[in-house]
Amino acid sequence: MGAYLAVSLIGGAMALENRSSLRLMLSQPICSGPIIGLALGSPSDGLLAGLMFQVMFLGYVRLRGGRQPDIPLGGAAAAALYILSLRRLGGAYGGTALFLSLLAGLFVSFGGYLIYRVWERRSWAVQSLAVRYVLEGRYRLAARLHMAGLLFHFAFGFLALILVVPAGVECIAALAVRAGNGWNESIGSMRHALPFIGAGLLARLYIAKDRSFWFGAGFLVTYVLTLFGS
Amino acid sequence: MQRSYIRHLWRLFFLQSTHNEKTMDGLGFYHVLAPEMRDWARNEEELEEIASRSMGYFNANPILASYILGIVQNMERRRAEGSEPSIERIERMKSTLSAVLSAKGDYFFEVVLIPLGLTIAGIFGMYSSYFGPIIFLVLYNYYHLQARIGGYLTGLRAGEGLGGDLVAQLYKEQGALAGCAAFASGVFAALAVVRAYAFGGFGLAGWGVAAAAGVFLLRRRISVMWSVVFVFIATAIYLLLS
């Protein structure tokens, strides 16, 4: 229970960091993965899960007003699920556990996106209440109302992880055992295939932005150097 | 005075707590300026007017919004002292700078700096190194904290005089950094191919290139979330069948 609580507290803090515009970027999966791993005593597994989640969204550009998947929360969920389900499975079925954790993380990201669509529509009510307070001369209360928004962000991250992680660990452990070793070996190479998703998004970002020369140069130099290196 | 700066700076970091579709960060804007508002007003009616005005529509890049808040605070102070800037001029400055700095900030931070830092982190991460996330955090926060803290203090010191030159002076290195980001992306893509080939031979590397092409094309039609989910599941099916 202590592990689930620790993970949920970190999830709450990451959601707060991401949504409040604190934006130190600790909530990016590649950073939050090792942090969660550190809290659970397995930073290298946290780094792996965080990295795999991050590379899928490498070329994603967050623009205000656009549809934003909740990548930080999804990454935190994926890292926690991977570490705890791997522990539950005694270190076996790592490939299946990683695949299912990342899939669950993607669902959490989508859930976060849906919840925040509603929040951004409804949080206007908070501002209209603040306006009312200002008209009544209760200026401090109006300012505090803004800070109360932080509680919502924290609570959302905390609740999402405390609900998803314990149930997710049970499901992943059961599915991984049921799927067996055949599945585990096949899906184990997922970690070598996922960077291509990020590479595709990056190519789209920079080729569309007319930086194809530098993208191509980076590709060719590395490819040639690795070829000669080996 | 120092305490007052710290109070404003602290609040700048929570500008978007009540981000909403109607006024965007209007309440956040008010929240940052709130501690000093009483000093700018001669009576309760004026305080109410300033507070209500501050809560209006405000949509800017949250990092470069620091400049705007510093400049507006400077102008409001001078207005309270009986100097020139009118309410209309303050509002015009606020909306003009919001539009211009949003375009600048969104491009520099979201299109150039974050992908660059994350790609470098991804390259290091492929080799299970913790240096990647550290390099990303240092690179990003160097610019981020400079804009947040330095931007606010510069805006506060220089006031509206800063407005004209600000956009031209900011991030002159963005072209070079964008080139670096594209180059790092190419390095990342090549390493993905090399590592997939070493692990799973031509089949895995070939599927990877097809997956990259799939995301590239899907992204033209559907959102990033669905593009990723679709290719992720397709990859899992391919791996299970092969």
TrEMBL record, chain B:
Keyword Flavoprotein on entry: no
Membrane spanning residue stretches: 175-194, 201-218, 224-241
Record keywords: Membrane, Transmembrane, Transmembrane helix
Example of a GO cellular component annotation carried by this entry: membrane
Domain of life: Bacteria
Pfam assignment, any one: EIID-AGA
One biological process term in Gene Ontology: phosphoenolpyruvate-dependent sugar phosphotransferase system
Protein name per UniProt: PTS system mannose/fructose/sorbose family transporter subunit IID
